[in-house]
TrEMBL record:
Organism: Tetraselmis sp. GSL018
Name this polypeptide is given: Zinc transporter, ZIP family
Localization (cell): Membrane
Superkingdom assignment: Eukaryota
Bilayer-spanning residue ranges: 12-32, 39-56, 85-107, 246-268, 274-296, 308-327
Length: 329
């Protein structure tokens, strides 16, 4: 019970804050001068390093294995059983979030097909670059950075108007408002499903170790900002309403606190060492998957030459390791 009583307020605060960072993304889409891609890549890389180190050194070894040891205490071969059980839960967490990720990709692919179908009847060439927005969250974010970089060279208008990102131009050039609205909403649903286990991971991680929970919340918050762009941009250009774009981005982030709420009820009703051990093992796997599948690939899309991402990732590991050493000395 000590986990739930000690840090539950902080855990809920971090989950709510990281989830609502999708709203920050929905605001940034209208600010073309905030596109410091190297800074964002470094932030995501450092976040991935923090999450990877925390997952293995703290959540898996320090929490999951320890809790299983407590559960098997007194039994023959308790340490071996604890390590095996924690390992099974770790990979089960990876499989669980991978299945959710597959559902995310299915919904985003469906959104992309809807968008492409409408564009084919209007201006298929203009949508050629933007239609990939429904295929993958990271591809959507990176479209204005890598795949469309060459088109950006000619995007400025002759009267000297400051050019907007090419993916935004492509969307504005296509009169397919209904398809855009559906794409934005479906992308929001997909991201909402993706955010749910992230909220659970943040909540459980904070209850186990506040430093780890804070690091995880920051990492997920940074990842949620560009996801907010994916939701708000098509809805805004489909409806002409900034509020509607912001609203759907807000809804996609609300599921993260719901994931935290689920974690609270699970721990409140079931507080045995086995319950904690299983949850921490699952969360460790989820955190590793999020780092390797989401944060690092997204960072490399903003930093295709890897000038800052890898350095930032290892720097994040060093900083987190130093933090753990200081507080355990």
């Amino acid at each position: 019970m000590s986990y739930a009583q000690g840090n539950v307020g902080l855990a809920f605060g971090l989950v709510i804050g990281s989830g609502l960072c999708t709203c920050i993304g929905s605001l940034m889409v209208f600010c073309t001068d905030l596109a410091n891609t190297k800074l964002l890549a470094a932030s995501l890389g450092a976040s991935a390093g923090v999450m990877l180190y925390v997952s293995f050194a703290e959540v898996f070894t320090g929490k999951a294995v320890s809790a299983f040891n407590e559960h098997y205490n007194g039994q023959e071969g308790a340490e071996g059983k604890a390590m095996r059980s924690a390992t099974y839960c770790f990979f089960a967490g990876i499989i669980l979030i991978a299945m959710l990720n597959a559902l995310v990709h299915f919904l985003e692919a469906l959104a992309g097909r809807l968008s492409l179908g409408h564009a084919d009847r209007k201006k298929p060439k203009a949508l050629d670059a933007a239609s990939g927005a429904g295929a993958d969250v990271e591809q959507t974010i990176g479209a204005g950075v890598d795949g469309l970089a060459e088109e950006d060279k000619t995007s400025a208008s002759e009267d000297g108007e400051i050019p907007v990102p090419q993916n935004v131009q492509d969307i504005m050039a296509c009169d397919h408002h209904e398809g855009l609205a559906k794409m934005g909403v479906l992308t929001g649903v997909a991201i909402a499903l993706h955010n749910f286990p992230e909220g659970l991971a943040t909540f459980i991680g904070t209850l186990a170790e506040p430093r780890a929970g804070i690091a995880l919340a920051i990492a997920i918050a940074l990842h949620n900002i560009p996801e907010g762009v994916c939701v708000a941009m098509p809805v805004y250009y489909a409806t002409g309403s900034k509020f509607k774009g912001f609203f759907w981005s807000f809804l996609s982030g609300v599921t993260e606190p719901l994931g935290g709420l689920l974690g609270y009820f699970i721990l409140w009703k079931t507080v045995t060492p086995m319950a904690y051990a299983i949850l921490f093992g699952l969360v460790a796997g989820m955190m590793v998957f999020i780092s390797l599948r989401e944060l690092i690939p997204t960072a490399l899309k903003y930093d295709p030459e890897d000038r800052v991402t890898t350095i930032a990732m290892f720097s994040g590991m060093v900083i987190m390791a130093a933090s753990l050493l200081v507080f355990t000395a």
